[in-house]
Task: structure prediction
Amino acid sequence: MPAQILDGSATAKKVREEIKAETEEIKSRTGKTPHLAVIIVGEDPASVTYVKMKKKACLSAGMHSTVHELPADSSQEEIKDIINALNADPDVHGIMVQHPVPKHLDELDILATVSREKDVDGISRDSLGSLVTGEPIFISATPAGIIELLDRYNIPIEGKHAVVVGRSIILGKPVALYLLNRNATVTICHTRTRNLAAITQQADILVAAVGKPEVIDGSMLKDGVVVIDAGYNKVEGRAKDVGDVEFESAAAKASWITPVPGGVGPMTIAMLLKNTLKAAKRQMGAGPQ
Ligand code: NAP
Result:
């Protein structure tokens, strides 16, 4: 049977409609508007596009969004001063620093400045540490989007063997921890993994977080696997971005699969909005999160 599609675009639309409705309810009840502040350092074209998308998404959900555009040669202290001011501003509920920051900066140190209550991106040391202890306030948006997608399609996680290919701080490691917290048995693979295919072939759930076009194909998967492809890769001569998974051969083996685009990507922004709403509710004392 051909794989069924995990439709991230449709699911994200539904999540965003729910968030919008709840945002409007909170605004009318408290008179306050959830507010996400985004800091972008430099003018990396992809980052500029992502930041614009985040602002647009906030506005369409009825939230405020302010963007702090800083020059590429900003110092560590200048950026931290802005974050500290945003931490102290009661009208700002969520803060995110667009990844990556220019190479001369210490990104982990910058992220550590964001207060835990406002770390809606969930990738500070504090937030990642709380994912290890199993008590996170915010889970970073892409990992959270992946789990939300599985949950909304009622795909069981507990007891499954989840293989995550990639171990970055923003994606591979947190999604692996989140799957572990949900009682999957988790294997993490990376560039030093020997015989990757022998491991991916054992996956009930395969999460590709590699950043290389189509490095995983159907021959590396077992029948019935659930494939989550977080990759977005530009390939010369191809009209569309491609994932880390070769779709056709993987879809022939999978029970469920995310397309690229239209799978994990749209879920990421939806989860950033969800985290911002949660942050606002916690800080306003406006009901259950
Ligand atoms: P990253 O920081 O470059 O990490 C890539 C990981 O993949 C590393 O851990 C690396 O291993 C591993 N890897 C690379 N080549 C491999 C190979 N041939 N075999 C096994 N492992 C390999 O990338 P990232 O930031 O996590 O992003 C990964 C992908 O997800 C990218 O395509 C990115 O665009 C996409 N992404 C999408 C979203 C979204 O949908 N919203 C958000 C974030 C990222 P080592 O650690 O050994 O180097």
DSSP finds ten helices and nine strands in the chain. Residues 142, 165-168, 170-172, 189-193, 196, 209-212, 215, 230-233, 264-265, 268 surround NAP (CB under 6 Å). The domain at 31-115 is CATH 3.40.50.10860 (Rossmann fold).
